Amino acid sequence: MPQPGMFGRLAAQFPAAVRDLTYYVAGDLPAAPATVAVPDFPSWGMLGNDRYGDCGVAGLVHGFEADATVTKESEQWPDAEHVVDYYLSYTHGADTGVVLSQFLAYVRAQPDGLLGHTVDAYAPVNVHNVSALRSAVALFDFAYTGIVVTDKMQASFGAGHAWTTDDLVGAHVVGGHCVPAVGYDDTALYVVTWGKVQPVSWPCWHEIADEAWAVITGELVARDGDGRGVALGALHTDLDRLSL
After folding, report:
1. What percent of the chain shows pLDDT beyond 90?
2. Which of 62, 81, 110, 244 gets the highest tally of CB atoms within 10 A of its CB?
3. pLDDT-wise least confident of 24-28, 77-81, 175-179
């Protein structure tokens, strides 16, 4: 049976300069389909998250993998050691975990992005706005999200069960975790964690999630030439303020 790994997501921070994703769209976000299938990626892997609290880095790599799978791009993917090395370089050698918004800003600022995969822009999505969250997954092939995990959720993961509100009753929070959301249907959001796809019932999601980010990859912009309805110019202007 699969075994839970480490954590490593630090408390959510939302930069004041960057608005909610819906602000950067003329009118409403395009309506999301009723379901988005989980990309058929051959092997997600732990990417070091069995030994280190690098879930923020591993989660973004998994997001890039989901995007490339959906768009049928053939790309090279880093192994666990390269992901761990990148994480420890970012944290100056300490296994401290990451703040997701700060890590996104860092990757966006690097010419080579995250081991050759770049972030063009990103914006927060209200975790309780299911329509916007679905749109982010449907438009950009993943959402980069942060949750808390309980001891009962660890046990359910190990048993191969979906996470539901039963995993919260009488449970203890054991850590903050980054999980990319890569698909959904009426019953669940599907996230990648600890090397596998984990279903999260929608009621459970509303209790455990406290941040979500729409990530527009550089590869998507280069391929499509735009932000799929997002005003990239305005979003770039706001993101650029973070480094001033």
Report:
1. 88
2. 62
3. 24-28
Q: Can you name the residues that pair with 66 across neighbouring β-strands?
A: none
| CA 1 – CA 92 distance, rounded (Å) | 34
Q: Provide DSSP, 108-146.
A: HHSTTTBTTB-EEEEEE--TT-HHHHHHHHHHHS-EEEE
Rounded Cα distance, 215 and 218, in Å:
9
How, if at all, do strands 119-124 and 143-150 pair?
Answer: unpaired
Interacting residues of 92 by C-beta distance below 8 A, sequence separation 6+: none
d(CA 63, CA 102): 17
